[in-house]
TrEMBL record:
Catalytic activity: CMP + ATP = CDP + ADP; dCMP + ATP = dCDP + ADP
Keyword Nucleotidyltransferase tagged: no
Lineage: Bacteria, Bacillati, Bacillota, Bacilli, Lactobacillales
Keyword Amino-acid biosynthesis: no
GO molecular function, one term: ATP binding
Species in which this protein is naturally found: Candidatus Lactobacillus pullistercoris
EC number: 2.7.4.25
Name listed for the protein in its UniProt record: Cytidylate kinase
One of the record's GO cellular component terms: cytosol
C-alpha cells in the first residue's frame, strides 16, 4: 500500500507519518530531507544554489542515504551523518531554490519511486500525491495556520537539540515565504491532489491526526 502525505512546511507531516509507519510497519520516506540533503551537498561543495549540473555531479559523488536507526530516520552523505545539518536555518532558507531545479527534482522523484518499490510505504512531501505516487491508495493533504506551524518548528528545534537563533515571528515569516515559493514554482508545485483528503491540524492533537489518517487507511484496506 502507498500512503501519500503532502502539505506546507511544519504542518505535522513527518511527525504523523513516522507514528503511522511504526504502528503499521510501513517504510517511512521523508522526501523533504532528501531535498535538504541536496542543499547541504551544494553548500559543502561550495556550489551556487542555482547551478543544477554542478549540484547533480556533487550528489552523484557524495550520495544521499536514508537510514533508519533506532526508529529514527538519519540522513547520510559523503559518509557523514548530516541529519542535524539539514535542519539549520541556512539550509531551510535555500532548500526552496535547490528543490525547484528541474534536474534535481527528476533525480529525487526517480529515487523516491525506486525506494517505494514493492514495500508498504508512507511518504511525505509536497508532490507525492500529484507526481511521485499518483496511484497512492490514500492521499492526505495536511494544512495548519502559519503561526501554529512556526510554534511547532520552534518546539521541534528544541527537541532535536538545535538552538534556534530565530524568534517565532522570524520563523513564521520564513515559513510563509517558503510556502509561497513551493506553491508557485513551475515544476510540481505544492498542490492538493484532487483525490486527496484535506485535514486542518491547527486545532488538532498529533494523536487525533494519526487516528484520522489510520481510519482512512483502514477504510481503504476494506475496499
Ligand atoms: O518538508 P521540508 O520542510 O523538510 O521540505 C524542505 C523543502 O523541500 C521544502 O521547502 C520544499 C521541498 N520539497 C519539495 O519540493 N518536494 C517534496 N516532495 C518535499 C520537499
Amino acid at each position: 500500500m502507498q500512503v501519500a502525505i503532502d502539505g506546507p512546511a511544519s504542518a505535522g507531516k513527518s511527525t504523523v507519518a513516522k507514528l503511522i509507519a511504526n504502528k503499521l510497519d510501513f517504510v517511512y520516506i521523508d522526501t523533504g530531507a532528501m531535498y535538504r540533503a541536496c542543499t547541504v551537498i551544494a553548500r559543502n561543495n561550495h556550489l551556487d544554489y542555482g547551478d543544477e549540473d554542478a549540484i547533480i555531479k556533487a550528489i552523484d559523488k557524495d550520495g544521499i542515504e536514508l537510514k533508519s536507526e533506532n526508529g529514527e530516520q538519519k540522513v547520510y552523505s559523503a559518509g557523514k551523518d548530516i541529519s542535524l545539518e539539514i535542519r539549520t536555518p541556512e539550509i531551510s532558507a535555500n532548500v526552496s531554490q535547490v528543490s525547484a531545479l528541474p534536474k534535481i527534482r527528476k533525480k529525487m522523484v526517480a529515487l523516491q519511486r525506486k525506494m517505494s518499490g514493492q514495500v508498504d510505504v508512507i511518504m511525505d512531501g509536497r508532490d507525492i500525491g500529484t507526481t511521485v505516487l499518483p496511484n497512492a491508495e490514500v492521499k492526505i493533504f495536511l494544512v495548519a495556520s502559519a503561526r501554529s506551524r512556526a510554534e511547532r518548528r520552534m518546539k521541534d528545534f528544541k527537541q532535536r537539540g538545535i538552538e534556534s537563533t530565530q524568534t517565532v515571528e522570524q520563523i513564521e515569516k520564513d515559513i510563509a515565504e517558503r510556502d509561497y515559493k513551493d506553491s508557485h514554482r513551475k515544476i510540481s508545485p505544492l498542490r492538493r491532489a484532487e483525490d486527496a483528503i484535506e485535514i486542518d491540524t491547527t486545532n488538532m492533537s498529533i494523536d487525533q491526526v494519526v487516528e484520522r489518517i489510520l481510519a482512512e487507511i483502514e477504510k481503504n484496506k476494506k475496499k
